[in-house]
């Protein structure tokens, strides 16, 4: 039986006041939904917004994104994610003291260097002019102070690029003079690292390089935002079940006890509250229907195949909505399924040719790279040839380059270096 049969096409159209509330509610992601509802609650003294139920059922828990804490409550996971850590800048500011920075001007320069570091901990060269103009000091003096950052924690901070960062970190390791000199040369010519592979010191040098922090501020990167999916897809054998993430939905509580509902003010606020409740229910219904249709259109994906060609207008026609409304509905939303946590927008793959999606091409390209010869990684031209042969289509090289970059796959020369490092 097709899942489409479960969809009720005769959903009653809501009043304009409901729709006015519905669109921002529909567009918001699940984590910010309560924040979106709060202004409505402030304007209405008869409603209260309560946080969603944080207890999860075993079935929900088993397939949820809380894989690292499958026996914990949602609240405990969030608490773990919100523990405050000392920032990179606080860590560096505390170290701007004598004897490394004995004078006020040296400290002022150091503070400005810190303020101009990028998120990876590197110092962009165009910041020299900014600091020079601000403090009225010469660039060579700024550079002199910047070099002292080699003595700060985290190691490598304040370098202009990864090579200098490696050099900053080099002095932290104990080694004999020959290995030290070899590493200096290796770092300076890192682009040609494979040409050093036959040197007897190469293996020892790589062991040290692998201990370097790259980028230098990596330990201060913010934890990746925890994704809260709107929809769960459970697969048991040949059956697929679609479920909303009800545990995270806030509740709108309408309290009319003791109120004279005939009064105009009270009557209006009650109508507004009911419209808001309807809007929240419409959000749930819309996303549930989207989940059902994605399963129908992309059924084979949940059994290991590539995402099939699918357009927003396909869903818009099924749901009798404008494509722009469906675009809002999927924005920032995720599905959790047996293949991971996936943005809803990823299911709308563009068709390159009939029945061939760009997603299928990307998946095949990733497969090619996964099993390529480490000594001779496939260039974009070779990837293009294999893809054209596989799918019987014609593409241009820049399309393959774009897809490779979208999949976070390095170029063939970079992959060769990475493979070489892994083998040591």
Strand fraction equals 5-15%
Using only C-alpha atoms, the radius of gyration works out to 28 Å
Low-confidence stretches: 4-17, 53-84
- Mean pLDDT value: 79
Query: How much helix, percentage-wise, in residues?
Result: 40-55%
Largest sheet: 4 strands, mixed
Oligomer: single chain
Number of domains: 3
SSE pattern: HHEHHHHHHHHHEEEHHHEEEEHHHH
How are strands sequenced across the largest beta sheet? 3-2-5-6
What structural class do the secondary elements suggest? alpha+beta
What's the tally of helices?
Answer: 18
The dominant shape is flat
List keywords for this structure.
424 residues; alpha+beta; 3 domains; four-stranded mixed β-sheet; 18 helices; 8 strands; 8% strand
Describe the structure.
The chain is of the alpha+beta class. It folds into 3 domains: 185 residues, no CATH class; 133 residues, no CATH class; 73 residues, Arc Repressor Mutant, subunit A, CATH 1.10.10. The chain contains 18 helices and 8 strands. The strands form 3 sheets. A 4-stranded mixed sheet has the order 3-2-5-6, covered by helices on one side. Strand 7 and strand 8 form a beta hairpin. Helix 13 packs across helix 14. It is flat and about 90 Å long. The relative contact order is 0.11.
Summary, kept brief:
The protein is an alpha+beta fold. It is 47% helix and 8% strand.
Element layout with pairings:
Layout: H1 16-27, H2 33-43, E1 47-50, H3 58-63, H4 74-81, H5 88-93, H6 104-115, H7 127-135, H8 139-147, H9 162-170, H10 177-188, H11 202-209, E2 231-236, E3 239-244, E4 251-254, H12 264-297, H13 312-319, H14 323-330, E5 334-337, E6 340-343, E7 351-353, E8 356-357, H15 358-370, H16 380-391, H17 397-406, H18 412-423
Parallel strand pairs: 2-5
Antiparallel strand pairs: 1-4, 2-3, 5-6, 7-8
Helix pairs in contact: 1-12, 9-10, 13-14, 16-17
């Amino acid at each position: 039986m097709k899942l489409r049969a479960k969809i009720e096409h005769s959903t009653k159209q809501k009043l304009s006041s409901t729709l006015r509330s519905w669109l921002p509610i529909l567009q918001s992601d699940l984590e910010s939904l309560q924040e979106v509802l709060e202004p409505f609650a402030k304007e209405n003294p008869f409603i209260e917004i309560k946080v969603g139920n944080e207890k999860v059922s075993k079935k929900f828990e088993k397939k949820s994104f809380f894989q690292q804490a499958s026996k914990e409550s949602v609240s405990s996971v969030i608490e773990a994610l919100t523990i405050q850590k000392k920032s990179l800048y606080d860590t560096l500011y505390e170290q701007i003291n004598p004897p490394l920075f004995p004078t006020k001007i040296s400290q002022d320069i150091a503070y400005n260097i810190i303020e101009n570091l990028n998120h990876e901990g590197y110092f962009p060269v165009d910041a020299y002019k900014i600091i020079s103009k601000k403090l009225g000091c010469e660039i060579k003096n700024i550079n002199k102070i910047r070099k002292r950052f080699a003595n700060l924690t985290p190691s490598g901070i304040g370098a202009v690029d990864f090579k200098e960062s490696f050099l900053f970190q080099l002095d932290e390791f104990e080694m004999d003079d020959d290995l030290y000199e070899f590493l200096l040369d290796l770092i300076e010519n890192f682009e040609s690292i494979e040409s050093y592979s036959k040197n007897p010191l190469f293996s020892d040098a790589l062991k040290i390089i692998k201990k370097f922090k790259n980028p230098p501020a990596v330990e201060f990167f913010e934890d990746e935002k925890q994704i809260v999916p709107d929809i769960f897809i459970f697969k048991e054998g040949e059956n697929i079940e679609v479920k909303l993430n009800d545990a995270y939905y806030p509740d709108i509580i309408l309290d009319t006890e003791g109120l004279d509902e005939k009064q105009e003010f009270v009557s209006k606020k009650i109508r507004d509250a009911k419209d808001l409740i309807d809007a929240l229910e419409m959000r749930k219904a819309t996303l549930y229907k989207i989940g059902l249709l994605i399963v129908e259109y992309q059924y084979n994906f949940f059994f290991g195949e590539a995402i099939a060609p699918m357009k927003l207008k396909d869903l818009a026609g099924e749901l009798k909505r404008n494509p722009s409304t469906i675009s809002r509905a999927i924005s920032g939303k995720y599905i959790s399924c047996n293949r991971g946590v996936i943005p809803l927008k990823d299911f709308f793959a563009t068709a390159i040719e009939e029945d061939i999606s760009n997603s299928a091409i990307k998946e095949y390209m990733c497969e090619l790279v996964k099993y390529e010869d480490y000594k001779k990684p496939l260039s974009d031209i070779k990837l293009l040839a294999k893809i054209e042969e596989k799918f019987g289509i014609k593409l241009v090289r820049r399309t393959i380059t774009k897809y490779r970059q979208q999949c976070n796959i390095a170029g063939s020369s970079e992959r060769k270096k990475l493979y070489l490092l892994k083998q040591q």
